[in-house]
Write a structure and sequence with these properties.
The complex is a heterodimer of chains A (86) and B (249). Chain A has one domain. Chain A has one helix and eight strands; from the N terminus they run E-H-E-E-E-E-E-E-E. In chain A, the strands form two sheets. A five-stranded antiparallel sheet of chain A has the order 1-4-5-6-7, with no helix packed on it. Chain A starts with 7 loop residues before the first strand and ends with a strand. Chain B is an alpha/beta fold and 249 residues long. Chain B folds into two domains: 97 residues, Translation factors (Elongation Factor Tu (Ef-tu), domain 3); 131 residues, Rossmann fold, CATH 3.40.50.80. Chain B has five helices and eleven strands; from the N terminus they run E-E-E-E-E-H-E-E-H-E-H-E-H-E-H-E. The N terminus of chain B is likely disordered. The chains are: A mainly beta (86), B alpha/beta (249).
């Protein structure tokens, strides 16, 4: 199976994002820190088969966000998002 | 519990199955009564969480099939043979059984009549479920927004909501349903007999700059359809996708 087969939309991570953010962020527009592409988070690429959830830019595939959950804690790495417009 | 500290507005609710019916041999619709349900929009999904006696939990997302106008929440679930959650929901759960769910989830892949049209819905297999919520919503509010559903299934027996779609399309009030059967077709089948391709989309898609498209199904189908629609002139921002992952058609 190739990585492309495992690709989902940001919408698939909406439940997880809803645990972290108070606002509905799948309709928020994120700007990729690597290439500057702007996309609603619901439309970015999501990979959920890793130990964490990885959101990638649909244009350049750079990592936008990584979310890891364990027990009752959650780690959020958003270094790939230059800005988020809510 | 410490976990509550990271929770936003999304909380787990308990739904109770009030009715269940098989749509196809592999697909079942569950009608749920969910006290505290805040209402939903067509296209949204829920997370379902099952907890085993030993505390092991499994969580999956399922699309909501019912129109926002209904009182009950309907989920339509396809059995994945190696699944942890779907075999229970398709084969085991019965009326009166409770399970945990949270939602509605997702504001991206949604449509309501106020957003207008014309609308192109493209489904592969159980990808039809969130699109059916849009079809039912349009019907429930008596909208005349032009809507076309292009729906790919393996065989006629695999077509989910077959009779309801036939009935709704038969009303000729602006809803058109076009089937593609990829594997096996009954004698004299009038619809498409192949996978969705560029030529089919050229024939079915609206030639209208205002058209919006919602595409839902296995990842490869969704990506090829979305690419073809953009090639046909659809603005990428008007083509919304929901990939199901690696479940083949």
């Amino acid at each position: 199976m190739e990585d492309a087969d495992l690709r989902l939309d940001g919408n698939a991570a909406a439940g997880l994002l809803g645990e972290i953010f108070v606002r509905e962020v799948t309709v928020a527009v994120g700007t990729c820190a690597a290439c500057g592409n702007r996309a609603e988070l619901g439309a970015v690429h999501v990979y959920m088969h890793a130990p964490g959830v990885v959101l990638r830019c649909p244009r350049c595939e750079a990592v936008l966000m990584r979310i890891v959950q364990a027990e009752s804690r959650c780690w959020l790495d958003v270094r790939g998002v230059r800005s988020l417009e809510l | 519990m410490a976990g509550a500290a990271v929770l936003g507005r999304l909380t787990w609710l308990v739904g109770e199955v009030t009715d269940a019916a098989f749509e196809t041999p592999r697909v079942r619709s569950l009608v749920l009564d969910v006290p505290g349900w805040p209402g939903h929009r067509a296209g949204q999904h829920v997370d379902v969480r099952l907890t085993a006696e030993d505390g092991y939990q499994a969580q999956r997302s399922y699309s909501i099939a019912s129109a926002p106008e209904g009182e009950r929440v309907v989920l339509t679930v396809e059995r994945l043979d190696d699944g942890e959650v779907s075999p229970y929901l398709v084969d085991e759960v019965r009326a009166g059984d409770p399970f945990e769910l949270r939602g509605p989830i997702g504001g991206y892949f949604v449509w309501e009549v106020g957003l207008g049209g014309p609308l192109l819905l493209v489904a592969g297999g159980s990808g039809v479920v969130p699109l059916m919520a849009m079809v039912r919503h349009r019907q429930a509010v008596g909208s005349s927004v032009p809507m076309r559903l292009l729906y790919s299934s393996r065989t006629l027996e695999d077509v989910i909501y077959r009779e309801e779609l036939e009935r709704l399309a038969g009303a000729r009030d602006g809803l058109e349903v076009v089937h593609a059967l990829t594997r096996d077709q009954p004698p004299g089948w009038p619809g498409y007999a192949r996978r969705i391709d560029a030529e089919m989309l050229r024939e079915v898609a609206w030639d209208d700059a205002r058209a919006q498209a919602f595409v839902c199904g296995p990842t490869r189908l969704v990506e090829s359809v979305a690419g073809e629609l953009v090639a046909l002139g659809y603005d990428p921002s008007r083509v919304k996708t929901e990939r199901f992952g690696p479940a083949g058609t």
